[in-house]
Every structure is written in structure tokens, then in C-alpha cells.
Design goal:
heterodimer; A: about 300 residues; mainly alpha; 14 helices; about 75% helix; about 0% strand; B: about 325 residues; two-stranded antiparallel ribbon; 2 strands; disordered N terminus
Chain lengths: ~300, ~325
């Protein structure tokens, strides 16, 4: 699977066209081309790239003149903490609301929650981000709108100041996933609540609390965890948008800057990393599946 | 943006195409009751009305707008950054204010809608054609071709749309045509999977077998018999996909990878206002965003209802 994307990204397109500044004269141009190793035929460049790749070398960034992988790696913590924080928000908000909407689906408040989640799907994320800046940063002045604030090491969630910087982008990133988890939970609750074992638990006279938390919630966890895992990858992908709005110096902002500056090694390295990330995420989710659901485990042995 | 919907639509769609088809002539769609059912839902009617208004505004933009925002002779830089409701020198009001170059926001939205709708519809139609053809072919031919195509589809669907679009745009550079192309590349797989899923069910039915027994050539079976019976879920997905494509295009334009300055879309307008956000000039971004929101919600409402109407399992 990785090979396909790998070849696609590397063979299509002409790096010379997009990399060289058109203002340069012919001699400078040739020198630049030679310096970047773009004068060699494509297959040779590709081979060079491949051989570099085998010892973890994606080539040097044209802009930063440092190994592309290093440039990306130092941005990883920022994106990672943002994505994790957003996931926590999405689960912490989406799961209880979804549970409530599923259990009391006839109530007005539940319908209100569902309507809100439709809005969460339809609202363009980047526009919501702008409006958040407008309301919370410009008009109310509660939270900072741009940057990362104080960091401890390379993490900002360790300091209060860093957290205040992280809140808006994380909320923005979490918005879509919250609606997703909410709807998924509600659908799950409505399915589980019809099952015989839930009815039986009620018939036994168990307390509602125990039924919800032991019988219903446990069986809900499988789809929810799958989605959280799968969507974690797309959170990192969509952080491109959020990071650009809030000036959050993570991988997403880096890739947009790199595309605008035509920094090809960084682009390629980023896309490659994403491919690896998605493949490994899928693998981890499969493993989690077997750990969580005894039925899958038994099927495998039989 | 929403990666769940196509799959749901796909599963709903498989049931959607299982009518009782006539062998000689595929049955005419039950048009009148379907329409009636469609409008029996107030939200769907609302969505349709919204959509009609949006399309009309986009079509009639040159006549409705008070200025052509991209004709430099009609702009007055002195009118820049005026709040909503102010008037220009000739007394023509700027209902929604002006942007940094003195462009009327309302006129900008009208013209921006054209680009946005164009991108959304063009990419959804081409992706639907391409994806459906590939999916039907995979189902009809089977064998190695099918497994190759489906492997490709799986690969494609395991990546978020925005990432695929970024990949394409990183290679091709920006511009409206490239955005359309990027969205097609990112979305064809959804159609292919749905078309194949539906076709696999339909392929086993008697009318296809009968057509084969009559030695009707394969191409004809594919186009006249299989395709009409697989089309319902495709239409539903295509409708939703227009909304997704518009959202995606706006996002890409916002990131500076989409529409060019001479042919701005709604995303571009919002992006223009980003710089003025921190000085509290909210209207430059706010109103184009509202227009975008109304467009997307209307299309989604219509698509949602279409899915219910075209799915016999749900209405019975």
C-alpha cells in the first residue's frame, strides 16, 4: 500500500518547475538546480531518494537547509498534543451527550442536542475557528488567538499559559468529532437498549445507573473506540486547517507553508509520514479490537 | 468532511435499487408519489427552497449585484472596510459592508457562490461518472480487475479527503481546475465502492440473467440494464458530495491552495477577512461564512430526504 502512494508522489510532477525562483538568471538557475540535485534524471533522483530513505534520510529541506525529517519531527509534539486534547474534548463532550440523547430520545433537550450535532457536521471548521477568534479573543479578550504560548520542553499542556493557548484550537478541532461521537453513541445506545440482556437487567431490578454504566456503556465502547482511533488520524490531517487559523506551529502549518514555499522534501516526508501513520493506526485499531471484543478473539481461534 | 455518510448511504442504497424491474423496459421511476413524499418533510422543502434561491442568486449574480467586485473600475478604495449598511458616494448601499479593497461583500458573495457551486457540481458530477463507471466495470467484469480496483479503492478511502486533496495540490499547484481535479481524485472511490456494492446485488437478479440469455451484448447489459438500477444510491451520494466538495473547496481556498484571486470563491472571501478579524472587522468573514453554511445545510437537507425517499426499506 505504501509503495503505491510513494511512487505516485515522487514520479508525477516536475520538481524543477515548482522549485526554482523565476527571478533567478540562467547561471544561478543552473547552479541552484545542481545544488538541489535536480539536474540528474528523475530515476536517478528517485533512486537517490530511495537509498536515503533506507537509513531514514528524506533529504534536506530547501527552505531550512536541514534534514526534512528533523524539521517535521520538532513540530510533531505540537500537533500531537493538540490532536490528543481535541480527542479528549470530543469524547468527554460527545459520549455523555450521546448517551443522554439515546436514553431520553423523546425529550426536547435530546432533540435539541441532535439538531446541534447536525450543525456541527455542516459548519465549515475554518469559519467556526475564525468566529471563535472573533468572539473569545477579540471581543471578550479571554483567550489568546495565535501561537503556542509558554512551553515546557516541547509541550505546552504542562503550563497554564500553554493550556490557554491550546483551548481554542483544540475546541475548534474537536467540534466535528464531537458531533460524530455523539451521533454514534446515540445510535449505539438505541441499538443496545433493545437487546435482551438490557431488558433482563431491568427485569432483575438492577439500578438504572448500573445498567447504563455496566451493560450499555461497555457494549458501546467497541464502535466508539474504533471511530476514535480511526478519526485520530484524520484529526492530525485536519489539524492542517486549525493550525493555519490559530498560527499553531505544528506539522499542519508546516506542510501548508512548505507547499506555498515549494519545499518538496518536506512535503514528501510529511506525506510519507502520514502514510505510515495511517497504516500503523489501522493496525493498532485491529489489535485493540481483539483485546476489547472477546467475540473477535474467539473467531480468530476457531 | 464527513467521512461516515457515504458508507451509510451505500448501505442504504443497496436496498434502494431493489425494485421489481421489468425485463423489456426498465420501469419508469415512480416520479409523482416520490416527489410528493419528498416534499412531505418540511425540512426537505425548506432545503429545496434554500437551494433554489442560492442557485438563482448565483445564476443571476451579474444582474442582482450592485457592483461587479472584480471589475476594478467599479471599485473605490476609499470605500474600503465600511461596516454593513453604509453607502457609497452615489448613495448605493453596501448592505453587508465592504472588504479591504472596497468591494461590496454582498456582491462578492453572489459572485463567490458561482465559483463555489461550479466547483462543487463539476467535481461531484465528474467523480460520479468516473467512480460509477469503474465500480460497475469492476462488478461486471470481476476477477483480477475487480480485486485490483477494489484494492485501489480501499487504499484511497483509508486516507482523509483533505490529505488526498493536499497531495494532489502539492503536485499540481493551485487554481480552480486543479481543485476540481483534486476533489475528483479524493472522491471517486466512494462512488466506485457504492456502485460495485449495488451492482453485485443486481447482477445476480433474473432480469440480468435473462438479458444475458437473449445474447444482448455486454456493453448494452451494463448500460441499459445494470446502470439504471444502480443509479439511486449514486444520486444520493452525489448530492451530499456537492456539499462536501463546496466545503472542501472553501477550506482549500482558505489555506491558499484553491481558487485564484481573479476567480474567488466563498472560501477565498472568508480568507480575505482573516486579516481584518483581529481588528474586529467581523463582516468580511462572517457573511460569506453564513452564505457557505446555508448552501451546505440546504444541500444536506435535500440529500438526506432523497436518501429516505429513494430507499424503499425506510418508507414502507
Amino acid at each position: 500500500m505504501t509503495i503505491l502512494v510513494f511512487i505516485g508522489v515522487n514520479v508525477i510532477g516536475n520538481p524543477v518547475d515548482i522549485l526554482i525562483n523565476p527571478d533567478l538568471n540562467q547561471a544561478e538557475r543552473a547552479q541552484m538546480v545542481a545544488h538541489l540535485g535536480l539536474d540528474k534524471p528523475l530515476w536517478q533522483q528517485y533512486f537517490h531518494f530511495l537509498s536515503g530513505l533506507t537509513h531514514g534520510d528524506f533529504g534536506n529541506s530547501f527552505v531550512y537547509s536541514r534534514p526534512a525529517l528533523d524539521v517535521i519531527m520538532e513540530r510533531v509534539p505540537a500537533t500531537l498534543e493538540l490532536a490528543i486534547f481535541a480527542t479528549i474534548i470530543a469524547v468527554a463532550v460527545g459520549l455523555p451527550l450521546g448517551l443522554y440523547a439515546g436514553l431520553r430520545s423523546e425529550k426536547f433537550s435530546a432533540k435539541f442536542i441532535m439538531a446541534g450535532s447536525i450543525l456541527g457536521f455542516s459548519l465549515p471548521t475554518f469559519w467556526v475557528g475564525l468566529m471563535m477568534i472573533l468572539v473569545f479573543a477579540v471581543q471578550l479578550g479571554w483567550l489568546p488567538s495565535n501561537g503556542r504560548g509558554e512551553t515546557m520542553g516541547s509541550w505546552s499542556f504542562l503550563t497554564l499559559d500553554g493550556l490557554s493557548y491550546m483551548l481554542l484550537p483544540a475546541l475548534n478541532l474537536a467540534l466535528f468529532k464531537t458531533s460524530l461521537i455523539l451521533r454514534l453513541t446515540r445510535a449505539g445506545v438505541q441499538e443496545v437498549i433493545m437487546q435482551d440482556y438490557v431488558k433482563f437487567a431491568y427485569a432483575k431490578g438492577l439500578g438504572e445507573k448500573r445498567i447504563i454504566f455496566v451493560h450499555i456503556l461497555k457494549n458501546l465502547m467497541i464502535p466508539v473506540i474504533t471511530i476514535v482511533g480511526l478519526e485520530f488520524g484524520s484529526l492530525i490531517a485536519y489539524s492542517v486547517v486549525t493550525e493555519s487559523i490559530f498560527g499553531w506551529p505544528g506539522m499542519g502549518k508546516l506542510i501548508i507553508d512548505s507547499i506555498n514555499l515549494l519545499d518538496r522534501p518536506v512535503i514528501v516526508a510529511y506525506l510519507m509520514m502520514m502514510v505510515v501513520l495511517f497504516v500503523s493506526l489501522n493496525f493498532i485499531i485491529d489489535v485493540c479490537y481483539t483485546l476489547l471484543d472477546p467475540r473477535v478473539r474467539l473467531e480468530g481461534k476457531a | 468532511m464527513n467521512d461516515m455518510d457515504p458508507k451509510l448511504a451505500a448501505s442504504a442504497g443497496i436496498a434502494g435499487a431493489s425494485g421489481t424491474p421489468d425485463i423489456v423496459e426498465p420501469p419508469p421511476p415512480r416520479a409523482i408519489p416520490a416527489l410528493k413524499r419528498f416534499f412531505s418533510s418540511p425540512t426537505a422543502a425548506l432545503g429545496t427552497i434554500g437551494l433554489l434561491i442560492i442557485c438563482l442568486v448565483a445564476l443571476l449574480a451579474p444582474w442582482l449585484a450592485t457592483q461587479n467586485p472584480y471589475d476594478l473600475t467599479q471599485l473605490d478604495i476609499l470605500d474600503s472596510r465600511l461596516p454593513p449598511g453604509s453607502e457609497n458616494f452615489d448613495g448605493i448601499p453596501y448592505y453587508l459592508g465592504t472588504d479591504g479593497q472596497g468591494r461590496d461583500i454582498l456582491s462578492g458573495i453572489m459572485y463567490g457562490l458561482r465559483t463555489s457551486l461550479l466547483v462543487g457540481i463539476a467535481s461531484a458530477v465528474v467523480a460520479a461518472l468516473l467512480g460509477t463507471t469503474i465500480g460497475l466495470l469492476a462488478a461486471y467484469v470481476g476477477g483480477r480487475l475487480e480485486s485490483f480496483i477494489m484494492r485501489l479503492v480501499d487504499l484511497q478511502l483509508s486516507f482523509p479527503t483533505i490529505l488526498m486533496a493536499l497531495m494532489v495540490l502539492a503536485i499540481l499547484g493551485n487554481g480552480v481546475t486543479n481543485v476540481v481535479f483534486a476533489i475528483i481524485v479524493a472522491e471517486w472511490a466512494t462512488y466506485a465502492r457504492t456502485a460495485r456494492g449495488t451492482a453485485l446485488v443486481e447482477r445476480e437478479k433474473e432480469y440480468i440473467e435473462a438479458a444475458r440469455c437473449l445474447r444482448i451484448p455486454g456493453r448494452r447489459v451494463l448500460l441499459r440494464y445494470l446502470l439504471p438500477n444502480c443509479i439511486a444510491p449514486i444520486i444520493v451520494i452525489a448530492t451530499m458530495q456537492v456539499a462536501r466538495a463546496i466545503g472542501l473547496e472553501a477550506t482549500l481556498s482558505f489555506l491558499g491552495l484553491g481558487a485564484s484571486v481573479t476567480q474567488p470563491s466563498l472560501g477565498m472571501l472568508i480568507s480575505n477577512g482573516y486579516r481584518f478579524m483581529l481588528s474586529g472587522l467581523y463582516w468580511i468573514s462572517f457573511y460569506p461564512g453564513i452564505a457557505l453554511l446555508i448552501t451546505i445545510v440546504s444541500i444536506n437537507l435535500v440529500g438526506d430526504r432523497l436518501r429516505d425517499v429513494l430507499n424503499p426499506r425506510k418508507t414502507r
